Amino acid sequence: MSRKSYAIAIRDVLAEEMRRDDRVFVMGEDIAEQGGIYGCTRGLLEEFGPDRVRNTPISEAAFVGAGVGAALAGMRPVVELMYMDFAFVAADQILNQAAKIRYMYGGKATLPLVIRGQQGVGRGNAATHSQSIEAIFMHIPGLKVVMPSTPADAAGLLRTALRDNNPIMFFEHKILYNTKGEVPDDPDFMIPFGKANIVKEGKDATVIATSQYVGRAEKVAKQLEKEGISVEVIDPRTLVPFDTETVVNSVKKTGRAVVVHEAHKCGGVGAEIASIIMEEAFNYLDAPVIRLGAKSCPLPFNLGLENAVVPQEDDIEKAVKSVLYK
Amino acid sequence: MDKERLLWIYRKMQEIRKFEEKALELFEADKLRGSVHLYIGEEAIAATVCSLLKDTDYITSTHRGHGHCIAKGAELAPALAELMGKATGYCQGRGGSMHIADVTKGNLGANAIVGGGIPIAVGGALAAKLRGTDQVAVSFFGDGASNEGTAHESMNLASVWKLPVIFICENNGFGISTPVKQSTSVEDISVRSAAYDMPGYTVDGNDVLAINEVVTKAIERARKGEGPTLIECKTYRWLGHWTGDPQVYRTKEEVDAWKEKCPIKRLRNHLLENKISTEEEIQKIDEEVIAAVEYAEKFALESPEPDPSTAMDYVFYEN
């Protein structure tokens, strides 16, 4: 085990996989000399050279599309989006091309493409650089959707992504980059997709949280423990594929569920998870499922306004108490 | 150009023409659903360009893609079966007319989104460059796509990275019903190459020899690692944008005038006038093509529908 940050965990896996497989290469805006604006590719240029570590023009549609083409042509590209919000600039290449090509071609093409980058609030980047947009990519069939919440998960999930033969949206969170944790040194350390992490076991209520809200939910769960409330915290880790079994088994045990994420509540992943629980565990529920997510409002610049829009730890605590009728 | 390649081009043009005439006939007989965008009148471009490519070279194509697919090696029977949505089709009924691909032959796919295939061709060329091979990638696109952001971004990217891409703009005069003059800032789309510091050529897209000359140069440049080229081929689509197009935007006289410039007839005359080939030899090709299309029709009509229980197959690669 080594103690490292979420950003360094990502960088190390990129480097290890580039050493292991010369089909892997990275491209994106300011990723070469600068090493990416959050340092996730720092040092790669020096080791692998400018062919495999490519600064792109600010042309998201072209370089994401070039990733699609290079993957079809036998390479294993990793495309960094500086902000995941920019995926909308390349939306056609992701949603109409990458997601659908294998299916449209009747299985006669393989598209091993990882599109990775950070999203979310926390750095005062305002509405077009603070969104959490994973639900859109979960909605369109053909993409795997990954959301690591810790340095170890970032490492294990990224390695799985890099060895997968499908197009993958890998959502990092900007405020997690500096968080530190123990990461296995095993160069084959992988976390399988579709396997949720039971972050904390509990028996009274289940909280399903993603990305930075996993840590926040865990913190709330520890506080509630002192009040005699035992909360189980589950991190799905991947939204596609989704580990229905772990979530449903937990809810069958606790009878109560809260889903929390940073993305907008309306049409968000929480709605899907709540519906899965309703479909699979309705008879076990002792209270309606509560969803927490950002209000239907663009993310504001001002910190106070931003906090007013996205869920707070207080909201998680209240929601847990509410499903327990406390 | 040697006789063998000229006859290959002639055969491919006839295959495309007869294949599409059959597709139209099947569509009109309600045996084929969806929308079918026919390439009739533009065959010289796909056939000539692909005659200069190897199986290992890449192409990306368009919604009007039957010609590119056939010229890049697609077999007529599974192609027609795909147009009919059959289980034996190239995409097993999942893609239809606008999504035929055969990666094993370097066809990275037709593409129903205007401009969608252009960056994908750039990616094929990038793969070639990273592997250090002399493969090239051809991006076929229309005059309409030349106004998409992806066209401009892709030309810039290919130029900056000196990628082996040949951008082939098939200017057939209309984006659906809108004439090029109403939609496009320049008379000759090839002049846009100057903005991306690459050579640009405008050629008669119905003239096999003219296309051959500039595409040969562009491919040589690409294989030598000198970067991309933009070639505009001016041509004309004889039929509507799609099979149900009322064609209010042009006159019958205009269409008839272009039919006089039929690229197939033109090549045929060239072959005969220059005694490169004989009536008998050409007629034999025509007969073989007609037989191949008849076989494809029989194959497609007799092929089974895909099993509805397989509808979810191929969403993901199963690792």
Walk me through the structure.
The complex is a heterodimer of chains A (326) and B (319). Chain A is globular and about 60 Å long. A seven-stranded mixed sheet of chain A has the order 3-2-4-5-7-6-12, sandwiched between helices. In chain A, strands 9-11-10-13-14 form a five-stranded mixed sheet, sandwiched between helices. In chain A, helix 8 links the parallel strand 10 and strand 11. The longest helix of chain A is centred in the N-terminal third of the chain and has 15 residues, at 6-20. In chain A, helix 1 (6-20) packs parallel to helix 7 (151-162) and helix 9 packs across helix 10 (269-281). Chain A folds into two domains: 2-183, Rossmann fold, CATH 3.40.50.970; 197-324, Rossmann fold, CATH 3.40.50.920. Chain A has twelve helices and 14 strands. By secondary structure, chain A is of the alpha/beta class. Chain B has 319 residues and is α/β, with parallel strands linked by helices. Chain B has a single domain (3-310), classed as Thiamin diphosphate (ThDP)-binding fold, Pyr/PP domains (Rossmann fold, 3-Layer(aba) Sandwich). In chain B, the strands form two sheets. Chain B has a five-stranded parallel sheet with strand order 1-2-3-7-6, with helices on both faces. The radius of gyration of chain B is 19 Å and the shape is globular. The model of chain B has no long low-confidence stretch (mean pLDDT 96). At the A-B interface, helix 3, helix 4 and helix 5 of A face helix 5 and helix 6 of B.
The general outline of chain B is globular
Give the overall shape of chain A, derived from the CA principal axes: globular
The helical percent of chain A reads 25-40%
- Rg estimate of chain B, integer Å: 19 Å
CATH-defined topology of chain B: Rossmann fold
Our count of domains of chain B comes out at: 1
Gap from first CA to last CA of chain B: 47 Å
Strand order of the largest sheet of chain B: 1-2-3-7-6
Strand order of the largest sheet of chain A: 3-2-4-5-7-6-12
What is the percentage of strand-forming residues of chain A? Answer: 15-25%
CATH superfamily of chain B: Thiamin diphosphate (ThDP)-binding fold, Pyr/PP domains
What would you give as the CATH superfamily of the largest domain in chain A?
Thiamin diphosphate (ThDP)-binding fold, Pyr/PP domains
Low-confidence stretches of chain B: none
CATH top level label of the largest domain in chain A: Alpha Beta
Tell me the β content of chain B: 5-15%
Mind telling me which CATH architecture of chain B this is? Answer: 3-Layer(aba) Sandwich
